[in-house]
Design a protein that fits this description.
This protein has 183 residues and is of the alpha+beta class. It contains five helices and eight strands, in the order βααβββαβαββαβ.
């Protein structure tokens, strides 16, 4: 008798203070380390020192959690003002190429608009990371600044408080969190 593989499910939800240790575990095994802007940090002690103040600050974090409680994705908005925030996103290498990065991006952009009422979010991405650049452009981010000839960074931003979103009819970011996804 052939065994059938059960499909795994994950949930995108708001992070809480109790998620610190599972987040640390995700980043300890995360690759590549220090690949871009020194993130994520290279060892457990530095990861914890990086995450603790972030989780205490008035920033907003979404995570991707498996049914077993393993955190495999993290997106955060670091507010710079009441209208603007920087976005960072990480998906564990074991869970890439399943569309989870796109779902997490959709959820965090919708959260920025409908819950935080931000006007703009921005991010920095490696120019050579074509899949990420393409995803960000697909989701409405536009390049606003290339760091220069010797740099490989691109800054992109997106308005998030459009008239359609304010009317709760957003055609792109319709899913609410927590969001359950079957892999």
């Amino acid at each position: 008798m052939k065994a059938t593989k059960t499909r795994e499910a994950v949930t995108i939800r708001l992070a809480t203070a109790e998620d610190l240790e599972p987040l640390v575990r995700m980043y300890v095994s995360f690759e590549p380390k220090l690949e871009f802007q020194g993130l994520p940090p290279a060892n457990e002690e530095r990861i914890r020192r990086w995450l603790e103040p972030l989780l205490r600050a008035p920033n907003s974090h979404l995570i991707i959690e498996t049914d077993t409680g393993r955190i495999v994705g993290h997106a955060m908005l670091c507010q710079q003002s009441s209208e603007r925030a920087e976005l960072a996103i990480f998906v564990h290498q074991d869970y890439r190429h399943h569309g989870l990065g796109e779902k997490l991006m959709q959820a965090i952009v919708r959260f920025a608009c409908q819950c935080l009422h931000l006007r703009k979010i921005w991010l920095t991405v490696e120019l050579l990371n074509a899949p990420a650049v393409n995803l960000y452009q697909k989701l409405g981010f536009v390049p606003i600044y290339e760091q220069g000839v010797l740099s490989s960074e691109l800054i992109m931003e997106r308005e998030v408080s459009c008239q359609v979103c304010r009317q709760q009819q957003c055609p792109v970011f319709e899913a609410h969190i927590p969001l359950r996804i079957e892999l």
